[in-house]
């Protein structure tokens, strides 16, 4: 273990300590990147692979915030937000959409009841800041897509992926 890394016995620290967050994304790498960033900020994170599972995980009363992608099987992110808001009446549950199509779908997202959206790829710092803002009922600014070193917007290099996994190369290998 590197010096400065938290040990397994260390209590969680960060701005999201005690917060329970559901992360819904059908891409296991994207889900792991988002979940790792939030867990590193102290959150208790539950990852799910589709909107249907996101709804089920969010309605049990043990969720403080939902982070969801848009394009997922079964029930997409837009439908999941609408179901939570209108079918279950969960108007107080903050929902942050993190998707490569977030900017295009913004009017529909707001109409469905999303609180804020970020465009993938998103850095851990921006994600944690946006989640914190949503939990404080302050909508964060949307983040435009990034294009770096010839990599199209929405795609990450291996090094960027490792960075978003908190430097844990073994997680990338597992994925």
- N-to-C terminal Cα separation, in Å? 21 Å
Number of helices: 7
Query: Judging from the principal axes of the Cα atoms, what is the shape?
Result: globular
Structural class: alpha/beta
Radius of gyration: 15 Å
Question: Top keywords for this entry?
Answer:
single chain; five-stranded parallel sheet; 39% helix; globular
How would you summarize the topology of this molecule?
Elements: E1 20-24, H1 28-40, E2 44-48, H2 51-58, E3 65-68, H3 77-87, E4 95-99, H4 102-112, E5 116-119, H5 124-135, H6 158-164, H7 169-174
Brief rundown of the structure:
With 175 residues, the chain is of the alpha/beta class. The chain is built from seven helices and five strands; from the N terminus they run βαβαβαβαβααα.
Description of the molecule:
This protein has 175 residues and is α/β, with parallel strands linked by helices. The chain contains 7 helices and 5 strands; from the N terminus they run E-H-E-H-E-H-E-H-E-H-H-H. It has helices spanning 28-40, 51-58, 77-87, 102-112, 124-135, 158-164, 169-174, and strands at residues 20-24, 44-48, 65-68, 95-99, 116-119. Strands 2-1-3-4-5 form a 5-stranded parallel β-sheet, with helices on both faces. It is globular, with a radius of gyration of 15 Å. Mean pLDDT is 78; it is low at 1-7 and 138-157.
């Amino acid at each position: 273990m590197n010096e400065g890394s938290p040990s397994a016995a260390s209590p969680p620290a960060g701005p999201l300590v005690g917060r329970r967050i559901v992360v819904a994304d059908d891409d296991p790498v994207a889900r792991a990147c988002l979940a790792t960033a939030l867990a590193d900020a102290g959150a208790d994170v539950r990852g799910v692979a589709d909107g249907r599972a996101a709804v089920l995980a969010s309605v049990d009363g043990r969720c403080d915030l939902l982070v969801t992608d848009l394009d997922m099987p079964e029930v997409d992110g837009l439908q999941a937000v609408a179901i939570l808001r209108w079918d279950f009446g969960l108007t107080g549950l903050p929902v942050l959409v993190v998707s490569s199509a977030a900017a295009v779908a913004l009017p529909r997202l707001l109409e469905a009841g999303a609180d804020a959206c970020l465009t993938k790829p998103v850095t851990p710092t921006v994600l944690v800041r946006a989640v914190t803002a949503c939990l404080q009922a302050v909508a964060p600014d949307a983040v435009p897509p990034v294009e770096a070193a010839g990599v199209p917007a929405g795609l990450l290099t291996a090094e960027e992926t490792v960075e978003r996994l908190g430097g844990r190369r073994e997680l990338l290998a597992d994925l």
